[in-house]
């Protein structure tokens, strides 16, 4: 027997949710549905977003209400327009095999007359954001005297957004006999207080430990110098070719800066913040949902209620002001039983904040290392290999060209052919990362945890040495000793002055005293290895420190990245996106955002009032 039937849900609804792919109840559904179906309890459910909360209260509502009657019997309050629409749609979907179920979504930023018309026609379930709801109540356009159930969804978020007073006013129009069901991801004192205020001995259900993040989320942190943050962030992104992420910043200016830099660098990114009009927000969210955007750069407030499944990574580009917000941020990944990673990019001074967050979420972070340029290249190479392996061939279309293609390739062995295909994109990454410095910041006493120097030993302060790139490596059958000999011969220097040598695949790095660096570069001019030009160039920290500066001016190898095209390819595979749209997508995004800059509407769309973009204005919040 279907487990939802066992829980007491009727056939019509079970059939509808089966079509949505609900085979087994999620833990919160399993535990809350039997309690809520009695209809006689107030209820507090402490659960993360993405755990199946909507059905946990939505299915019991459909069982308990009398749909012969056409007046409001249930009111669901939630913090954002996105969530409001989502809940209303979900309930409509659960009830699509039932008769006479009327659900209305009431939210700001859309025509109020449409909403009023729907209400007049008769509804039983009202799903609303507090600002618009209050507006409609104040117009005398709705009668809540027949309300039997009130659901406060994402209660902590509603309080964070300053809706306390609105909620009080709305609830005062509902009868005392109603039952109140409250759901919240965290349980700060304010939520406790409202639970106490509105409820009578509620049944409490805690999924996981209080304030604890979802168990399916891994938390990682990277320690970088402030000036390397953007470069480090990009490297993390490049190391995860299939990333579908939300990147959190503290201010809207920061979201715009980062999104703009990413777009220039060829990524599919856009920003979501409070200065966008509702239409612009919808557009950005639509593109993100459809996966035409791979990275959504958002402020805390703007990202509330984002209910996109399959988010692989949440990246805290800046840590939130309030610790609780970390839980909300990370809860955007690992939804619906999936796994996800929440990443914090911090500088050494912020390690204390990581420890504080660990205490609040009851989980340890893993210290991760920013991948080297070589690691990224390798990862990307295999992403390309997998892509080539898995690509769907349109036999019908390509057939006509096969003879010509075979003719072109007739001289090449399978191995040569494979190498060439893989190199098309791989070369761009190699080129981009050839001078890539180590971006991991020293954590203790100026010494990186991975060790700054190799086996060739300490040679005074690092600053006395310059790191050089050479386009020869292990594929040219060099080991460290052989490369040292080769360098000494060509550069006409003594082996004793050469510092660390790092032999990679198709390139290597070596260090020489600063005073010798240019001489070595010059001495290599015109050198050849097996008929190939040998290139030696200055690499090292100097390059990295320029990066953040370059980026805003658009200098940061934007051209290379844009051409690299690997984003488009990944996305096409992942989300069935049409090829060729990638660049346009990115730039259109930039256009939208600039339009948005002229609109200073703030968060009127949510609540009818302008809200602070930073949620840090509430002093009672736990702050770092
Ligand atoms: P929610 O927490 O209600 O936003 O749900 C998160 C996601 O899980 C939504 O995409 C739901 O459609 C999905 N979901 C909820 N309950 C189930 C279930 N029992 N089986 C499969 N998917 C579910």
Automatic annotation (TrEMBL):
Helicase C-terminal domain: residues covered: 216-378
Protein name: RNA helicase
Entry's Gene Ontology molecular function annotations: helicase activity; hydrolase activity
Start and end residues of each DEAD-box RNA helicase Q domain: 2-30
Residue ranges of domain Helicase ATP-binding in the record: 34-205
Record carries keyword Protein transport: no
Region (Disordered): 441-460, 538-624
Cross-referenced Pfam families: DbpA, DEAD, Helicase_C
EC number: 3.6.4.13
Sequence motif: Q motif, positions: 2-30
Entry's family note: Belongs to the DEAD box helicase family.
Compositional bias segments (type: Basic and acidic residues): 444-460, 548-596, 606-624
Source species, domain of life: Bacteria
Keyword annotations: ATP-binding, Helicase, Hydrolase, Nucleotide-binding
InterPro entries per UniProt: DbpA/CsdA_RNA-bd_dom (IPR005580), DEAD/DEAH_box_helicase_dom (IPR011545), DEAD/DEAH_RhlB (IPR044742), DEAD_box_RNA_helicases (IPR050547), Helicase_ATP-bd (IPR014001), Helicase_C-like (IPR001650), Nucleotide-bd_a/b_plait_sf (IPR012677), P-loop_NTPase (IPR027417)
């Amino acid at each position: 027997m279907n487990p939802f039937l066992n829980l007491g849900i009727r056939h019509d609804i079970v059939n509808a949710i089966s079509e949505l792919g609900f085979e087994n109840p999620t833990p919160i559904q399993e535990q809350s549905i039997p309690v809520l179906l009695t209809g006689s309890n107030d209820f507090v459910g402490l659960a993360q977003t993405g755990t199946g909360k909507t059905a946990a209260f939505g299915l019991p509502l459909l069982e308990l209400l009398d749909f012969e009657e056409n007046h409001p019997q249930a009111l669901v309050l939630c913090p954002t327009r996105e969530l409001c629409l989502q809940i209303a749609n979900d309930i409509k979907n659960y009830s699509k095999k039932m008769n006479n179920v009327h659900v209305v979504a009431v939210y700001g930023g859309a025509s109020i007359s449409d909403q009023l018309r729907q209400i007049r026609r008769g509804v039983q379930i009202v799903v609303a954001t507090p600002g618009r709801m209050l507006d409609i109540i104040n117009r005398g356009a709705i009668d809540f005297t027949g309300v039997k159930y009130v659901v406060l969804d994402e209660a902590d978020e509603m309080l964070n957004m300053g809706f306390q007073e609105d909620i009080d006013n709305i609830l005062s129009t509902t009868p005392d006999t109603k039952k109140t069901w409250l759901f919240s991801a965290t349980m700060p004192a304010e939520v406790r207080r409202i639970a106490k205020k509105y409820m009578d001995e509620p049944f409490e259900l805690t999924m996981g430990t209080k304030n604890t993040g979802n168990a399916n989320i891994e938390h990682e942190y990277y320690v970088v110098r402030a000036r390397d943050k953007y470069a480090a962030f990009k490297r993390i992104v490049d190391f995860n070719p299939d990333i579908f992420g939300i990147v959190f910043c503290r201010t809207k200016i920061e979201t715009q800066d980062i999104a703009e830099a990413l777009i220039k660098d060829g990524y599919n990114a856009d920003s979501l913040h409070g200065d966008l009009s509702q239409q612009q927000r919808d557009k950005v969210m639509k593109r993100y949902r459809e996966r035409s955007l791979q990275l959504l750069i958002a402020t805390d407030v703007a990202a509330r209620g984002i209910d996109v499944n399959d988010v692989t990574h949440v990246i805290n580009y800046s840590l939130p002001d309030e610790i609780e917000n970390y839980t909300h941020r990370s809860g955007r990944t690992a939804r619906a039983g999936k796994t996800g990673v929440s990443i914090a990019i911090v500088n050494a001074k912020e390690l204390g904040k990581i420890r504080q967050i660990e205490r609040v979420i009851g989980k340890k972070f893993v210290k991760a290392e920013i991948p080297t340029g070589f690691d990224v290249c390798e990862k990307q190479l295999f992403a390309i290999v997998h892509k080539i392996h898995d690509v769907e061939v349109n036999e019908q279309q390509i057939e006509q060209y096969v003879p010509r293609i075979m003719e072109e390739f007739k001289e090449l062995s399978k191995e040569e052919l494979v190498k060439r295909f893989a190199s098309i994109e791989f070369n761009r990454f190699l080129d981009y990362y050839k001078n890539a410095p180590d971006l991991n910041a020293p954590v203790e006493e100026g010494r990186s945890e991975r060790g700054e120097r190799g086996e060739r030993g300490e040679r005074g302060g690092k600053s006395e040495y310059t790191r050089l790139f050479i386009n020869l490596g292990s594929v040219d059958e060099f080991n460290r000793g052989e490369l040292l000999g080769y360098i000494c011969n060509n550069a006409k220097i003594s082996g004793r002055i050469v510092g660390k040598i790092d032999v990679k695949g198709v390139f290597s790095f070596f260090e020489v005293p600063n005073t010798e660096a240019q001489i070595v570069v010059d001495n290599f001019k015109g050198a050849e290895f097996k008929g190939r030009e040998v290139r030696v160039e200055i690499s090292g920290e100097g390059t990295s420190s320029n990066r953040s500066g370059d980026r805003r001016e658009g200098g940061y190898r934007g051209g290379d990245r844009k051409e690299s095209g690997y984003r488009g390819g990944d996305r096409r595979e992942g989300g069935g996106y049409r090829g060729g749209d990638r660049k346009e997508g990115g730039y259109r995004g930039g256009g939208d955002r600039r339009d948005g800059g002229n609109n200073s509407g703030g968060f009127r769309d949510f609540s009818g009032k302008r809200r602070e973009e930073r949620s840090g204005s509430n002093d009672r919040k736990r702050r770092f």
